[in-house]
Design brief:
With 134 residues, the protein is an all-alpha fold. It has one domain. Helices cover 54% and strands 0% of the residues. The longest helix has 17 residues. The radius of gyration is 15 Å and the shape is globular. 28% of the residues are buried.
Length: 134
């Protein structure tokens, strides 16, 4: 299922009007390896719940970084995409990226914490604000 495959009922608000939903769809378009995760998410949640989806994105990104799953979406592409989106400073996007991605990255001493050192400058600054101790 492609990110834009969900039609809207007449009179229903366009989900693309919500930057957090657009973020999810744009991520799936930029990193097609997330398509299966997206399709499962939409089926299970009966729609797009950005914060729930991004918890899964975080898990998949860390798995990719650790080399635990050769089929996982490329962590570099994911971080690059999130960095680009974060430079826009859109409140709905920033809220999802910070609270449902950055805050769920592994803590110091946990496998994959080193991914924090791979964050771009905008993501790194946001991470330092929400998790100053790492």
């Amino acid at each position: 299922m492609t990110p834009d495959a969900q039609p809207n009922a007449p009179g229903e608000a366009q989900p693309d009007a919500h930057p957090d939903v657009r973020l999810v769809k744009d991520l799936v378009a930029a990193v097609p390896a997330f398509e299966d995760l997206y399709a499962t998410h939409v089926f299970n949640q009966d729609g797009v719940l950005p914060h729930v989806f991004f918890w899964d994105v975080t898990q998949e990104t860390v798995r990719s970084y650790l080399g635990l799953d050769a089929d996982a979406p490329d962590w570099r592409r994911t971080l690059r995409f999130l960095e680009e989106q974060s430079t826009r400073h859109v409140p709905g996007i920033d809220e999802v990226v910070v609270t449902s991605f950055l805050e769920y990255l592994p803590f110091p001493g946990k496998p994959g914490h080193e991914i924090v050192g791979e964050l771009g400058p905008v993501l790194a600054a946001k991470f330092a604000e929400v998790r100053p101790a790492g």
